Amino acid sequence: MEDEAEYLERIANDVLAVLTARHFLEVLDDQMCPPDPAQPRAQCTGSYDVATSVLFQPGFESDDVADIIRVLQARRAHCDCEILLNVAENSLVSSQNLIKTNRDVINMPG
Ligand SMILES: [Zn+2]
């Protein structure tokens, strides 16, 4: 029988492709580090609150969101800011801008 790690490895590429196609990391980054400093920042609370609010858009089923979170967890992203730190930097987006703003995220609680 397929174990959890094998399952996540099998779906990971699809999940990351969907996230890339939907600009998930860019949207998450914009919410946590808005380009306009006057905009309120979404704070990481050590959970996936911001990520799930970004993901629960038309076209995403709650089962899909659960799978996405599991894939992110398997990539050492255990909260909203760690998604930007660990997943964005390592695999999905090579944007220098995103990596730069990650340094701001480090200072957030969580
Ligand atoms: Zn965090």
Mind explaining what this structure looks like?
Helix 1 (4-21) crosses helix 4, helix 2 packs across helix 3 (49-55) and helix 5 (80-92) packs antiparallel against helix 6. The chain has six helices and no strands. The protein has helices spanning 4-21, 24-32, 49-55, 62-74, 80-92, 96-106. It has one domain. The protein has 110 residues and is mostly helical. It binds zinc ion (ZN). Zinc ion is lined by residues 44, 46, 79-82, 110.
Summarize the model shown.
By secondary structure, this protein is mainly α. The chain is built from 6 helices and no strands.
Distinctive features:
mainly alpha; 110 residues; binds zinc ion
Number of structural units classed as domains: 1
- What are the secondary-structure elements, in order, as H or E? HHHHHH
**Average predicted confidence as pLDDT:** 82
Low-confidence stretches: 91-97
Largest sheet: none
Which assembly state applies to the chains in this document? single chain
Q: What structural class do helix, strand and pairing data support?
A: mainly alpha
Radius of gyration: 14 Å
Query: Count of helices?
Result: 6
Distance from first to last alpha carbon: 36 Å
Which molecules other than protein and nucleic acid are bound?
A: zinc ion
Q: Estimate the strand proportion.
A: under 5%
- Helicity level: 55-70%
Silhouette: globular
Number of strands: 0
